[in-house]
Design goal:
It is globular and about 55 Å long. The chain has one domain: Vaccinia Virus protein VP39 (Rossmann fold, 3-Layer(aba) Sandwich). Helix content is 40%, strand content 24%. The protein is built from 10 helices and 8 strands.
């Protein structure tokens, strides 16, 4: 994977968004991802360590190796792990297409929000299968921007979301990859594949999700491609501004917002 393929960019604002997202969704996404004592776990595409600290905290006696292609992200991730007092994680620069590990090096592999940015996700999954021990498990979590729906409904809001989907596709990624996890995993020769939905439902009775997910995670993610969307002619500035206003309108007391993540598991 090339750093240029990451549609959201490497900025302090994006780093904060990733951490907000992981913290807000910890119970929904990670409550049942726990690894046995002594097991070796590879986390691929760890970024700034937003998921890493949750994994390491949930499985304190497992040993994690977390890799990413960005040296700056790895520096931030190391700092987060140290600040959390966690001693069961090591970091290493690495590319999913050229993993610096021998065959069957890990008991388990964990991937979160990575496949959506890859030009060749099936090839990446094959590389991960190579370093996984026999009967070891792979866990993959991905979003799907086409799963977003909301009240009040708005064609302008749906249009700005579609801008993000199209920009990511032009960069070689796939913002709709969640719905494809089952065929991706089976085509990459994983066994016992099971995919489940982790749906986030937000209304004004859940103020932590209104702020942490709808505003700070989803809308912030869409807002991040504004300049690209306008420059590429996907939307006019007035339409973009209206779409963003309408997304924020869903966070009002009478609004709702729904989004689904896909969690896939398979074995070697």
């Amino acid at each position: 994977m090339n750093k240029k393929d990451y549609v959201h960019g490497y900025t302090d604002k994006e780093n904060a968004r990733l951490i907000d997202q992981a913290t807000t969704l910890e119970r929904i996404l990670h409550s049942d991802t726990v690894y046995p004592p002594g097991s070796r776990v590879l986390e691929v595409g760890c970024g700034v360590g937003a998921q890493t600290v949750i994994l390491a905290r949930n499985s304190p006696q497992a040993r994690f190796t977390s890799i990413d292609i960005s040296d700056e992200s790895l520096r931030i991730a190391r700092g987060r792990v140290v600040s959390e007092g966690l001693a069961n994680v090591s970091f290493q620069r690495g590319d999913v297409y050229a993993l610096p590990f021998g065959k069957e090096s890990f008991d388990h592999v964990f991937v979160c929000f990575l496949l959506e940015h890859l030009r060749k996700p099936t090839e990446a999954l094959h590389h991960l299968r190579r370093v996984l021990k026999r009967r070891g498990s792979l866990t993959v979590i991905e979003g799907d921007h086409g799963s977003a729906y909301f009240h009040p409904n708005s064609s302008h809001a749906r249009s700005v979301i579609q801008c993000l989907i199209e920009i990511q596709e032009r960069m070689g990624g796939n913002a709709l990859v969640g719905r494809q996890l089952f065929p991706l995993l089976t085509n990459a020769e994983y066994r016992d594949v099971h995919v489940s939905l982790r749906t986030v439902y937000v209304d004004s009775s859940k103020p932590n999700l209104v702020q942490g997910f709808t505003k700070d995670t989803f809308i912030a993610m869409v807002e991040g491609v504004r300049e690209q969307a306008l420059r590429s002619g996907l939307v006019r500035e007035s339409g973009w501004d209206q779409g963003i206003r309408d997304l924020y309108r869903t966070t009002n007391p009478d609004g709702t917002f729904i989004y689904s993540f896909f969690l896939g598991r398979g074995a070697k």
